[in-house]
Write a structure and sequence with these properties.
By secondary structure, the protein is mainly β. It contains three helices and nine strands. It is globular, with a radius of gyration of 18 Å.
């Protein structure tokens, strides 16, 4: 029963409040505002030395009335949270760029991860001026990034299921 979790297990929650695109140096960038709520089991594992990773999946589609939408671009960003026991601080790492932030508290980690700015997504050359595109983004805890012995527990426990719904908006050059 402990391995699979009980009925009263509270799953973590991720909500996307806002997502915006901006063009900087011919690259489409994403600003993302999230609300993250962690299950105590995930926080305990993190403080015990288990790093956790979040995947941010992004899709750009061109809507078509006569057929399925055409995929224009797809991207992924990853952020890893780890606990540094000697300094009792947290390390937030952008896995794609290698940028790191050392943060003094878990609340600071939630704040930093909840306000992501200027994530590069795609080159402007992928898009045609005047056309309307549909953007979609989802944020999820990546169970596959956990150590192998923890994955079965994470797959079967609601405590480790953290994912937002897809958040969509229109984009036009």
């Amino acid at each position: 029963m402990l391995l699979f979790g009980g009925q009263g297990v509270h799953a973590g929650n991720i909500s996307i409040h806002d997502a915006r695109t901006a063009i900087i140096n011919d690259i489409v960038h994403l600003d993302l505002d999230l609300d993250l709520e962690f299950n105590p089991d995930v926080i305990e594992a993190l403080r015990s030395g288990i790093a956790i990773e979040f995947a941010i999946d992004i899709e750009f589609n061109r809507p078509r009335w006569y057929w399925l939408n055409a995929e224009v671009a797809r991207g992924k960003h990853r952020f890893r949270i780890s606990f540094l026991p000697l300094s009792e601080q947290y390390l937030l790492t952008n896995v794609v760029t290698g940028d790191r932030q050392t943060l003094p508290s878990f609340d600071d980690v939630i704040t930093a991860l909840g306000t992501l700015r200027s994530l590069p997504l795609a080159e402007v050359s992928n898009f045609k001026a005047g056309r309307k595109y549909r953007c979609a983004v989802q944020v999820r805890l990546d169970i596959e990034a956990l150590p192998a012995p923890m994955r079965p527990l994470a797959y079967f426990s609601r405590a480790w299921r953290m994912a937002s719904d897809w958040f969509e908006w229109d984009f036009q050059l």
